[in-house]
Amino acid sequence: MHRDQTIACRAVFGTFHAVDITNYPSAVLSLQSLFALSECAVFSARRPENGERENDPGMHFDALTLAAVADELKETVTGGRVQQIVLPDSRSVALEIYAHRERRHLLLSAHPQASRVHLLEHKPRRGVPKETPLLLLLRKYVRSARLESVELPVPFERVLFLRFHHAQHGATTLAVEPIGQLGNVILMNADGRILDALVRVPAGENAQRVLLPRRDYQLPPPQDRLPPLGESDEPHGEAGPSPVDGDGAGEDQPSLLWRSLLNRFAGVSPTLAREAACRATGDAGAAFTTEAFMEARKVLGDLWSAAATGEWTPGIAVDEEKGVAAFAPYELNFCGEFVQAESMSAAAAAFYVAQERDASSSRDEYAGVRGGVAALVRQAQARVQSQLRALAADEPGPGEPERVRAQAEWLLALSSQITYANRPGGQEGFSLQDGMAAVEPGLNGQMQLVIFGAGADFGQPGEKEPGAEEGDLIVPLDPKRRPVEQAERMFDRAAKMERAARIIPRRRARLKADRAYLQQLENDLSLAQDQPEIVAVREALREAGYLRQRRDRHEKTPRDRSRPLRYFSPEGFPILVGRNARQNEIVTFDLAGRDDLWLHVRDGPGAHVVIRCGGQPVPELTLNVAARLAAWYSGQRGNAGAAVAITPRRFVTRMAGGRPGQVHYRGEETISVAAELPAESEQWLAAGEN
After folding, report:
1. E strand or H helix at 105, and its extent?
2. Contact 551/604 with Cβ under 8 angstroms?
3. What's the half-sphere exposure (Cβ side, CA atoms, 13 Å) at 600?
4. Which of 233, 294, 487, 679 has the largest CB neighbor count within 10 A?
5. Are 159 and 220 spatial neighbours (Cβ–Cβ below 8 Å)?
6. Which residues, including other chains, have CB under 8 Å from residue 238's CB and lie 6 or more apart?
7. Which of 39-53, 217-231, 430-444, 599-613 holds the top average pLDDT?
8. What's the predicted TM-score (pTM) here?
9. Buried-state track 382-406, b at ≥16 Cβ within 10 A, e below 16
10. What is the distance, to the nearest Å, from the Cα of residue 168 to the centroid of all Cα atoms in its chain?
11. 270 and 51 in contact (C-beta within 8 Å)?
12. What is the mean pLDDT of residues 527-556?
């Protein structure tokens, strides 16, 4: 459904916040600060033979992705009322829909290289200066109408029906066809007659169907391919060699598995085909074989089964060089690091902002790569937070191991006196002949062993077990187990609690140190000035164990050779500033002397700053300058007041088992300064460089 030609199109995209994933509260990506329509971006690319272009942003928005978006729209906007309609550009329609007490903005794009459907976080701007016939009809028939249903009329095809009902004009349908170069948005009445189309297609030699007002709407021609689900006895469904498996590389080159999947099955994009090949063989570029084809076909069916179950895993793939390289409603394994998003729209928005950004309108030429690494940092932070929550849930309360062990010891000691009055034994079957203890029902009706005056206070001061007198020890009894068996289980449980009480505090301290290190890397990324410094943050994540070790990667990563900044204060004191964890390590332990002064913002990530004074008294102005530099090159940049700790370098030591740049310090004094760069800082920096 695509033609071979060089494509150039102009798209309208908004206030470019350059995949600003650093503002996300977690690694699960949201639409916030990612996507808004307004500015212009120009794309051009050549489509090679067979299938879609390999670097085409549209190669990821396939029928399976559209099914995931359709499920999302059914939950978020179905039943809502259309309040406003704008054309952000000549090939897009945006609807503002009020549903479930919330305004949502839906983008319907028919760009040749970026056709898609998804929700936006921000209200799009009007990009077409004149009102078009389609816009006037949409305002008449769709504005103030209720979105009654979201449908996929054709299995395994990129066609979406949005059915509306207007109180005055009745039913209409908006057909959205995000099918690359033939993408379109078509408005039709209740009888299926076209009212107008975003791109009118007159009759001609190359027209597969006519899309003009007053014509009956026809679905796109069906694909002569197999469905990705189920078995088939069709000849071209067999796994034998076929001419369609060629990859355009020449007769001497082997056929590729992913191209065979792409050419044989409907609703399969290059992204989906490569993922299926990767899961089946471990290599997205694997050669075609009968065994590999059969395994990949099963994988393809498993991936497509999400359309029936609704169990989507939307996210983006972050590439080492390209930043956000792909998106999909399933986990991607063949390219980059996969970062899960909160919705399919969030994943699509993150990708298209990165791919379609106009570099000339951005002050940050590394925004795409920076945004991708930021997503990885956020993912690592979410992982640490999840582990901390799990530790909190597993940690026993104060005195809990001792209490369980005491319960087990008493139960074992009195086990011979606890008998079953009735077999096979219910709660009423316990009896005990002992004056120091009794078996009686608890508040919940369960039988329990009460040891009178055991004098055990296991827990917080003043805490008392439910139903117990002061000093009594309660042992819940399990009628399905004999007392000895129950006591053994309680001893095992107490031992696990004791181990957890020893291990969890150490593990928590390690995770908190990692959380601080990830905050430092987040700060490092915001201060990175070139690609090697950005890549260095990603490699630091890998070294810390938060990224997979890619054995199949052979390309060299650019090495971070940046050096700490060197300033000269007005009184002539050298001031060294580290702008990332690696530079902090150099400043503190390689360049600073024992008697130099060391500065760092309190309770947050930031630069290690050293005043080279050799133990000499440092004037107040130099202290203030160094403190402001420490605050500026930190996570508190821009704050009116930042607390900065100052101590001699000899009181700073590496954190035992810590990451690069993580230290302990003592004997500090604290001053408060504005986290702003002094106006004369460029002169001081130049003096330090000279």
Report:
1. strand 102-109
2. no
3. 29
4. 487
5. yes
6. none
7. 599-613
8. 0.57
9. bbbeebbeebeeebbeebbbbbbbb
10. 44
11. yes
12. 76
Return the DSSP state at 178. -
Look-up of token digits 């009007």: 126
pLDDT tens per residue, range 15-47: 323 333 333 333 344 433 333 222 222 222 223
Question: How far is 70 from 162, CA to CA, in rounded Å?
Answer: 10
Which residues is 162 bridged to in the sheet? 150, 174
Answer yes or no: are the C-beta atoms of 351 and 327 closer than 8 Å: yes
Percent helix, strand and coil across the chain, each to the nearest 5: 35, 25, 45
| Range of weakest confidence among 79-83, 280-284, 676-680 | 676-680
Residue 628's alpha-carbon distances to 99, 543, 635, in angstroms, are: 48, 31, 13
The pair of structure tokens assigned to 50 is 């067979």
In angstroms, the Cα distances linking 407 to 401, 413, 431, 467 are 10, 10, 18, 16
547 compared with 667, residue with greater pLDDT: 667
Kindly state the tokens that stand for 417. 């006196």
Q: How far is the C-alpha of 534 from the C-alpha of 312, rounded, in Å?
A: 31
Residue 158 near residue 58 (C-beta atoms within 8 A): no
Token pair listed for 419: 């008998």
Residues ≥6 apart with Cβ < 8 Å to 509: none
Predicted confidence at residue 557, as pLDDT, reads: 62
Residue bearing tokens 């979201």: 150
Cβ neighbours, 10 Å, residue 594: 11
Q: Is-contact 472 452, C-beta < 8 A? A: yes
**pLDDT per position as a tens digit, 617-655:** 999 999 999 999 999 999 888 788 889 999 999 999 999
List of residues 6+ apart from 224 with CB closer than 8 A: none
d(CA 405, CA 491): 6
Q: Up-side HSE of residue 438: CA atoms within 13 Å toward CB? A: 8
CA distance 473 to 220: 76
Q: Which amino acid is at 389?
A: R
What whole-number distance in Å separates Cα of residue 624 and Cα of residue 662?
24
The dihedrals phi and psi of 11, each to the nearest 5 degrees, come to: -115, 160
What whole-number distance in Å separates Cα of residue 243 and Cα of residue 274? 19
CA terminus-to-terminus distance, the chain:
62
d(CA 421, CA 427): 10
Closest among 501, 229, 534 to 366, alpha carbons compared: 534
Lowest mean pLDDT across 154-168, 291-305, 369-383: 369-383
Query: How is residue 116 written in tokens?
Result: 């898609």
Angstrom distance (rounded) from CA 608 to CA 591: 11
Arithmetic mean of pLDDT over the chain: 80
If you average pLDDT over residues 194-219, what whole number do you get? 87
